[in-house]
Amino acid sequence: MRLFRGGTRADPALCDKDFLFLRSLSRAIASAAEESDLPPGSVILDVGSTRKPYQELLSQKAASGRFYALDVEPVEGHMLDVAGVVEALPFRTSSADCCLCTQVLEHVEDPQAVLAELSRVLRPGGLLLLSTHGVFHHHPYPHDYWRWTHEGLEKILGEHFGNVLQVEPNGGTLLLLFHILGRGVFYLSRRFWLLGSLRYSLYPLLNLLGLVTDTVIRDRSVVLNYLAIAVK
Q1: pTM beyond 0.90, yes or no
Q2: pLDDT for 198-221, tens place per residue?
Q3: Neighbour-count burial for 91-104, b at 16+ CB within 10 Å, e otherwise
Q4: Residues 6+ apart with CB under 8 A from 152
Q5: How would DSSP label each residue in 31-62?
C-alpha cells in the first residue's frame, strides 16, 4: 500500500483523497478478472479510458491479449488507441472477449444506447465489467447525469445481457462516510490555509479509519460505487 503521492488509479496512495473509492474498485476488478474465464489472447476493450489503468490486472489473466483503449480524445501524455464515442463504438460486432467500462455510465446522456453498443461488440459469452457510482459528488466530464442502486443496474443490464452475474458494492456506508469526510477536507483546504497544510496528514488517517470500520461494520445500505459483472 503506497503512503505518499505517486499512486495510480489501480494502486492509489493512502494520502489520496479518493483512495477509498479507487482502492475498492481496483480490488473488485482484480478479483473479477481472476475469477473470469478469459482465454489467452483475448481482445479487451477499455471503453471510455485513455490511460488504461487496469490493463495489468486483466492482462495477468488474459496472457498475450490485445488491449485497446477508447475515448473521445487523448489525455496529455497518453496515447489513445481508438477515438470514438461509447454510443457508437467503432468496432465490429462480436469482436471483443471483454469490455471494461469504468466510471463512464454516469456521464452519458443515454445509458441504454451505451449498453446496447457494449453488448453488440462482445462475442457470445463475452464478459462485461462495468463500474459506476451509487453516491458521489458532482463531477461533470463534460456532464454528470446519473447515480445508481444495485436494483437499477441489475434491471438496465438485464435488458441487454443474457446473464447479470452480480452487482457488487465497492464498500459500504462507513467507507462512503470517510470518503465524504476526505472530500470535505479537500474542499475546506482550498479556503483555509492551515487545513490545506494538514490535509496530507488527515487523508491517511481518514482512509485507514474508512478501511477498518467498513470491514467491521459491513452495512451496504448506502454505497459509494458498484462493479457490475455480466455475460452476453
Answers
A1: yes
A2: 888 899 999 999 999 999 999 999
A3: beeeebbbbbbbbb
A4: none
A5: HHHHHS-PPTT-EEEEET-SS-TTHHHHHTTS
